[in-house]
Write a structure and sequence with these properties.
With about 90 residues, the protein is an alpha+beta fold. The protein has helices at about 10-30, 50-60, 80-85, and strands at about 1-5, 40-45, 65, 70-75. It is elongated and about 40 Å long. The model has no long low-confidence stretch (mean pLDDT about 90).
């Protein structure tokens, strides 16, 4: 599973989103250590200022969290909703 966090420098919401994503993924990994051992959760962070296409698409919505290439949320990332999305991968 790939989580991509679209951010830009100096964005306080991006800092908050990064913390939420890291915390939820860590919680998911610890709860499902045995069951989810085969599930790879990769977190990538992309600075939209370095990609004009992403800047044009998401410039006003960052941070944006994508799961496997699909937009999951933007601005404020809901930890409960993110955990539910991760849980779906083991059900």
């Amino acid at each position: 599973m790939s989580l991509q966090l679209l951010t830009k420098p100096g964005c306080h919401l991006c800092d908050e989103a990064r913390m939420v994503v890291e915390t939820v993924v860590s919680q998911f990994r610890s709860v499902h250590a045995g069951v989810a051992a085969n599930i790879q959760v990769q977190i990538y962070e992309t600075n939209i200022l370095e990609d004009q296409e992403l800047l044009n698409l998401y410039g006003e919505e960052i941070p944006v969290l994508q799961i496997n290439g699909k937009t999951h949320g933007y601005w404020r990332i809901d930890p409960i909703r993110l955990l539910a999305a991760l849980e779906e991968t083991v059900s």
